[in-house]
Protein 1
Amino acid sequence: MSVELRDRFFALSAGPASAEEAARYRAEVDATDAAPAATVNGLDVCWHPSARFKAVRFIDAEHLDERVRELFARPSADAPYLAAVFADPHELSFRTFENIVPLDRLFEAVPLEMELVERAERAEGVLAFSLRLSEQARDLLTRLDGLNLYLPPLNAASRGGERFIFHSALLAEALTAAVADALPPSVAEGFSHVNPVFRCNGFEPGDANFHLHRDTPYYDAARGHVSRYTMLLYLTGGTGSPALDLAGGAAFGEIDAFTCVIFDQRYEHEGAPYLDGRKVFLRTELIFAAGEVTEEPEIGALFSKACYLTGESVFAPELARHADAYYNQVAAAHWGGADAGPARETFVHKEFRGVHFVANGYDFWFPKTDALSAAECAAITLLDYFNCKLGGTGFRALCRTEVIEADDAGWIPAFLRDKHSRSVMTRVDKSAFFPEPERAGSMCCPFHTAGGFDPTRFDEVIDLYTDAQSFAKAHILPAPILMLGEDVALDPDRFVIRDNLIHVLGRKALTPVNFAACWNDESIPEDYLTVAAKVGVEQFLVPPIIYNESDGCRHLRFDFFRNSWMVGHRQATIPIPRIIELAWADPGTSHAWRREVDESLIDADTPLEPSDLWDDEDDDWDDDEDEEHS
């Protein structure tokens, strides 16, 4: 049944299906329970759709445990290294909303020398070129449309067609060289490179337009980079009415295949399908040295609200239009400053195990009670924003939620005053996880100790146990929040309140421990060391949280997207070791502890890439800050 559900998903995705057939399939999926088969980037995934796992993602199959790898479908014959996985949409957060597909392998064997020719200035800040490239490269780019990787965009209500996002440093490198040679001096100053994150967009005649919008510039203060121009590469040609309309600038009614349009991101623009065939184009941007950049905190607040409401739209679809409005406001603000915004604001009231709070993604309000500390308010907000998992379930799915629209936030203190929130977090003595080992005895190894071997007093087992404890301590002791099954344990010492700021302390990097052990006899089993328990840890890299109290409320403000900060979050499960008595084991016996440690290292210690933090694509969340991947 599961294999059939997996295969029918791709069969139905590949071509038109009747409404009855699609409804019958959805009913079968909704009636199917499934356990996760693997964990990738913190997400539990399954190899077929089910009532829980419905959000399809395409990943490199090598990221899957080889024990289950072959269960996952290979959706693209031209990219057989990609596997399709299904995630729980309720577990998604701003880090995992979008799926960036790695496609560099496709470009490795293809000559990618490119040249932009026949430059035409269609308006101020609007350039059009013809892309000259080899037949092999032209054929490969054309075949991107047929890779079967399209996914419904988050902002489907505000755009037509279909889209998938991919990463290719090789394609970006080739286009960077072509752009550097072709840009006029007035535009080329400060040019660095083409963003290696691309969106492949496909439209059929009759599809809805991509509505009028601005592309928000990506900005990275650490690297000194900003995007100033959008780059559109049309893989098919056709006519539209018009096919691309830059408000106050140029309009493109007819576009030839492999036309490249580069325009200043200040332009509002709208795209329409071709009238006479399929429209396929790639979108990315040109990255420049930033130079003088002025920061406006209001923009960061708007962007945080937009990202938060995007996540909440999984539970309340009507919030998608509010997130869309915020993204457009952010885009305009980057060029002209923040305006007054919409007349009414959107808030979300949540109740988590008796704790009530109101949020908009930037502001979080809690009732001020003796039972609910400021540190606990900060912890709940972090769990909510990052949608951390408790007992395998995303935090937001554990909350009761209602959407409230109001003119301002003035209603919140009185609203929360009637909510009797209580503490929902336990206190835990972390040292209890790490009992001291027994003192080593004078005994030799099991091979030379007939019937009287005690692994708890054997020096080499104790050494291995001590190393295993060191690994666990390095992750658990600095963690501000621990997950103990469905319970949440708070370490208040990791939340430092100073003046009007809450500092969340943690580790910037997780350090692996070498588990190598020297055994006198290679046949001695290492299974004397096993996993006593697993503890989920939450490590955060976030800016200080602005905190104040007024009108009986604790008011926290989280600007996660300030340009001077890079926000990180990593959830991992840490094994706690203990020594056990075992009968004699064969040398080939699998080592549960070692396997658990290896999986934890993969999950918790993989260096953070920009794509692990957030995917803020313009065309994904409708004109938010585009992320550069280098």
Note: The longest helix spans residues 319-336.
Protein 2
Amino acid sequence: MKNLRAGSVIATLVALAAGVMILMSMGTLVESGLRYHPEPHKYAHADVVVAHQNITFTSKDFDGETTSETLPLPEGGRLPADLAGKIRGVPGVTAVEEEPDAIAVTGAGIVEPVRRLAKEAGVEAYTGNDRGLLEQPEGAATRSLLIQIGGSFGGYVVLLIIFVVAGTVGLSVRHRRRDLALLRAVAATPGQVRRMIVAESALLGVVASVLGVPAGVFATGWVHDQLAARGFLPSSFPMSHGVVAAAAAVGLTVLVAVCAALIAARRVTAIRPAEALGEISIEPARSGKVRLVFGLLTLAGAVTASTFAVSGSGEAALTGALGMLYLFVLAVALLAPWINAFAARLLTPVLRATFGTSGYLAAANLRANSKGMATVLTALVLSVGFGGSVWFLQNNLERGAAHDRAEGVLADFAMVAPGGLPPAAAEQTAAIPGVRAVTAIRRTAVLVKVFDGAEQVEAQAIDPRSASGTLDLGVREGSLQDLTSTSIAVSRMRAGTQNWKIGDEVGLWLGDGTPITVRVAAIYDRGLGFGDVTLNRETVAGHTRTGRDDQLLISTDDGSSLAPAAARYPGSSIVSAAGLNGKLAKDLALGAWLNRLLIGVMVGYAALAAANTMIMAALARRRELSLLRLVGVTRRQIKNMVHAEQAGLLGVALVVGVAIAGATLTAVVHSLTGDPVPYIPPLGWVTVLGGATLLALVATILPIGRLLRVSPLEHLGTKE
């Protein structure tokens, strides 16, 4: 540890500790969800409870292996009518209690026989604390939410953290090539050097874990409090201690750090000591051919993904766009030495004309150190690419959904109630003098096959006979008047995802697991505001959990008073259409907060990586700057040279990062909303570009200023 650079140690430690903190926090959310098993009360007396809460889809791979995926039923499923009778015939059963969704069974030695009957009927048998999940559907929903947040988002974060930690640790080892070469020169074997690097990296990982694990506990507690305050989960929901999550986070981070250090030091430990000493004095003339090949292949993959994103539609286009983002950033990381070298040659005349002699020195440094500055370029592109695409995507989703609702609701008023409205409310309200049209909206969800699995899709059920006076879904093909009990209307995005066309017979499952085959009667544009699937109310009758409508959309001729209608249903109220859209905006903002929190972690970590990398790169130049000062270059000229280098490097990073962000955001927004040009908040790009510029300047100027305040002889004499 004595020979480690203080700046590199701190920067690497920060990157590792932050990685442990984020991974542990995400892992604790998953662990908390998996460990949540509330004690049963209603079914405490039963030995086993049979219910239909999930549905399993099976499919075969290309090699013939069978895979399965289990999804929760949004509306809860119904049990077969003859199942209770079969269960009564099981030896040892002493009591069977039937309920509109569960069968509670009591007896001795009955669990396995009842479980077999449940499996044969395609339903589930619950024992132990799993029975409590049936009594607390909100707890089960929270459990699924935490697993989904930590699992899906954690996957993206893991890739990002691996990328950042590998780059930071690799740069730290690269800056120690002189030390490693000297060790080789005094008879240290390659194996000894590699073991030393492994030990140092592992020690740094352990120290980072000591800092990162408590920070992860604090971060998890803060996230829990924020989620509870915004209604995403009950405040009493128990969070696990995160022991498993902490162990996994520490193990992964230490492993990545060790592997990155070994890869970075492979050149110095693989060649003869004399060659190692010779190589550290100058930048290698060429980067590896393997890196170039992989970089070009990754770039080709990114271009292919962009083709799918632009030409495709629906989920396929969205997946292609997100894959494009990661592939382009990875391609930049691999091709960064060549990008830097090309940009340096291109910018040489500009830098010389702008900064004079300092610009000439800056251009020479950029050309000579193109490989050394590769990590800096990658970190800047990463922060700009993520900040300019993923962050602004949420703005476009909110804007698109609010626009859809504002343009699509033709009604003047809406009747709402906390517990929903009875089916007869629509007909009774329509009979009021002055009421022109009433459309009942019932929110639900359906399950559709996607590739080899399935997914839950938001849906609404309406009466198409009155919809023309209250709703405008932006139908582009077909007609809502053709919406019957055996047909559906779907959004443009869902039609593209499933490759559905007008007149196609398609299969799906209602929210309670009932399979249906329906015809596509219409395709509409405003899916963000109204859901991807629209059904006839007759289709979902008897297949929803409550059997009640969520709201009534009401159009009137003369603004007639609707208070008497609302008075019939306790707790109901009349709101204006604008107020209804305002509530939607509030709900969207609530969900957007969670998305922005998760996205902010990614963007913030990318920015941290950029700052760390630039500080390490700046501090590694002490010998170079000392030599320049000893041969007569003034401090002012050195500062101007650094400014010119940063201007060139930052300019390249911004151009590349903005291009990647713009392409990704355009492809995603086009696939989701159909808009050819994404919406950018007025100060959006100013914030991203200005933040990246400020970050680059602060992370470089402050360390360089510190180096210039020390005598050049002091730095020239250091072994680092």
Note: The chain has a mean pLDDT of 81.
Protein 3
Amino acid sequence: MGKRSRRTRLAACAVAAGAMLSGLAPAAGATVAQAATPSSVASAADDPAPGHEGMPDDGFDDEPDGEQDDSAGTGTGTAAAAPSTAPAAPVPGRAADFKLATGTDISALVTKLDAALPKQGLTELMEQANRPAGWEGACGTTGIYGSDLAVNHRVCWKSDDATSSEWVPQAITGVSDAQEDEDWGTSNAEPIAVAGYDAENPGRSDFTAGRDNCVQDSASDACNEKGIRVSFFNQATRMYRHVLLVWPYMNSKDHISFDALHAREGKCTTSVTSSCAAQNGIHAGGMVWYGNYLYVADTANGMRVFDLRKIMDLNPDNNADVNDPTPDGLVSDVLDKKRVGRQSNVWYSYGYRYVMPQVATLKFTTAKNGGTTSGNQCYATGRPKASYISLDRTGTDHMVLGEYCNTNNGGSSPGRVGTYPMTELTAAVEGATGTVANADLAYGLPTGATFNGEDLWHKIQGVTRYEGKWYFHRSNGYDNGRLLQATPETVDGTSRLVGNAKTLESAFGPEDLYLAHGRGDGFPPQLWSLSEHAPSKCGACKREVYSYNMAEVISDFG
């Protein structure tokens, strides 16, 4: 059905919605019982359509342009790059710098949103996955892969996701992180989750370019700053589905709504200034799914946390041409890709069926170092960056967090890593504002080795720890990256990470790491990662999700 007829229907739907009771979510596909019009719903009829102006800032720091970009700043990543300023010896690990604390309690907002919209479970979501992925040989040429590591599994995206300049994949996690027995849904579903960020930011407020209003008819929906989405892949069906991450807030009419994650549209009507400029989205360079919670790295702030029991379904009948009634007495529209949240008594989600709201924030308590980070510089002291995260299940469950740094552009550190007991992180997520999660270990990255005329131990995009050894994914612009290994050793009476002299050639655009341990399903342990670069970036670039047999990785390092 065409959009014009949908808009005609929409007015009638909104009037009918006024006669519906606000309450708990009905079963998927069920309609809401009609009753006398509550006064609160009647007054909601005056709710204006705010477009994307006036959406509030979520109160957290923006990340610099070019976050985790090898070419950011003055360095080029080649032998001709600016001289490195990396220290001669590893910077000291200071676990106290990594301390996290629970942010402002937003549970009441989540409860309101939960009551307003219907929910869907992850198992059902994966069974309704709507996008086919390529598998193994169907992904075509293997030109992005290096010669040192044999790729075991390969997953490739549907063509529009594989080539999108808007959405760039970054982080990876899966059911092996989520639970020890690896059993979620069907026995061979083995779900994998990948996070991608909206790379078309910032600049949506550029009035001189005519992009001050992304809802105008002439604007592409790619104009809108959509933040972060997570793609859940079902290995049994080889299908996947996108879920938009959002954060809840009360709008100007005191109604519950949501916006894209840390991604406010600009509202400039003349030249761009800081007061009206668009808000940068976060990079989501790392992600861990643990139990019911999804932890997403927020570089400048710490981590944002989501609850997989709170996935909202804006199209329960799976028919996009019909606006579905919502439990709060309104309707939802999943055809309009230019609006998000509650506007004129209609719920929008940039066209996505599913949204998952943020339920908690874990914020670094240490003050930032005073140095600039505009070129991805890092420092030996002060607040770290949450550039990437992973889970270590080989002992007591720990999260590993680390920094992406580019020493070609200055700074005093090539990066640090720290670990947190998952019991502390879970307690912080479920605790009151200010509840602390302490890191129990921290290291500076190894130093001294070189690669292509610059430091080897920087530009790290992902890390995991497995059976006491550390593995790092090092990017290399639009070329093959490297997989690195390090071992904790005592040097001059101090425990340090000491790098293996051997490096393994990895894929183009290597990103986050995820270890599927296989103890629950009986499969050999797999080290999963993904490539970020679309074919438009270089002649050999491709986007794939891939795995190596962990036993072969260990053997190759010797």
Note: The radius of gyration is 23 Å.
